[in-house]
From TrEMBL:
This is Streptomycin 6-kinase. The keyword Kinase applies. It holds the Pfam family APH_6_hur. Coiled coil: none annotated. GO terms for biological process: secondary metabolic process. Keywords: Kinase, Transferase. One of its GO terms (molecular function) is kinase activity. InterPro entries: Kinase-like_dom_sf (IPR011009), NH2Glyco/OHUrea_AB-resist_kin (IPR006748).
Length: 306
């Protein structure tokens, strides 16, 4: 049986995000895992770090490695992840081997050796950015008709909720949130194409692999403007490390992204600013109390907005 022991931090993340549904899911996690291991003929092969979902290494009946990933089914986020991965079709992303949306379960290809692109940043940040550019170019394809994924434009609701809930400059400067909300609407409206987006593409979500040199993991799965994809990589990786090295690399990354993706630099800056503010807005949708690196990035990018 897979070991479903988990830390207090993991439990807290699940309960704070999904409330009663999260608590009920945690209570049944051991039994759910055992049933899925039997149904999909899996054997445990080792733990993986936990954040918002339970994940573990497993072996299939034929001996091949895989990753079992479980999440609160009521949220639907793993169904979106699976749909996005199926749209990518194995191009620069791991493959879905099995899915059970009703039980919030995915069986996924394991990227081996699994070293994140973040490992490149300390000694060669342009090489890490080049890796992500290559992944983006392979991932992005026009969104299929009728694909069951949310529209990127729907994320304007997070800005609106924040502005309604917080009338002043605490916890975030109101003028930044208002500017980001307006830019978000303009960028979505001016999109020249609609693609299936990873939606959370950064250095720790791109892993070294054998089938392709690099494979993306953990997509959010949304449909919209390709430029949105660059936002998260401007304030990553290592959110708990000193901020200055990442912030100081931002302008060089923007130039490299614009050149590598054939995107106007002012659009890269705008999407970087919007997503940095949106990340902080999401922090305060839950029980977040402290602003982090994305706000620092947003302040740096503000003077560069056209």
């Amino acid at each position: 049986m897979a070991d479903t022991k988990h830390s207090a931090g993991f439990r807290r993340n699940v309960e704070q995000t999904w409330g009663d549904a999260g608590r009920a899911w945690l209570a049944g996690l051991t039994g759910l895992t055992a049933r899925l291991m039997a149904d999909w003929e899996l054997t445990p092969a080792g733990p993986l770090p936990l954040s918002m979902n339970w994940v573990g290494r497993v072996r299939r009946a034929d001996g091949s490695p895989a990753v079992l990933k479980l999440g609160v089914p009521e949220s639907g986020h793993l169904a979106d992840e699976a749909t996005a991965l199926e749209c990518f079709g194995g191009r620069a992303a791991i493959r879905v081997l099995a899915r059970d949306d009703a039980r919030g379960a995915l069986l996924l290809e394991e990227a081996r050796p699994g070293t994140p692109a973040a490992a490149l940043t300390a000694h060669d940040d342009p090489a890490a950015t080049a890796v992500l550019i290559g992944v983006i170019k392979r991932l992005h394809r026009p969104a299929p008709d009728g694909v069951a994924l949310p529209e990127l434009s729907g994320r304007i609701a997070s800005f609106r909720r924040h502005l309604e809930r917080f009338p002043g400059d605490d916890p975030l400067p109101r003028h930044l949130v208002e500017r980001a909300a307006g830019l978000f609407t303009e960028l979505c409206a001016s999109a020249t194409e609609r693609v299936v987006l990873h939606g959370d593409l950064h250095h720790d979500n791109v892993l070294a692999a054998e089938r392709e040199p690099w494979l993306a993991i953990d997509p959010h799965g949304v449909i919209g403007d390709p430029g949105y994809e660059i936002g998260a990589l401007l304030y990553n990786p290592d959110p708990d490390a000193p901020h200055e090295p990442v912030l100081n690399a931002a302008e060089a990354r923007i130039e490299q992204l614009a050149d590598g993706l054939g995107m106007p630099a002012d659009r890269v800056v705008a999407w970087g600013f919007v997503q940095a503010v949106l990340s902080e807005v999401w922090t305060f949708e839950g029980d977040g109390r402290v602003t982090t690196r994305p706000l620092m990035l947003a302040r740096r990018l503000l003077p560069l907005l056209s």
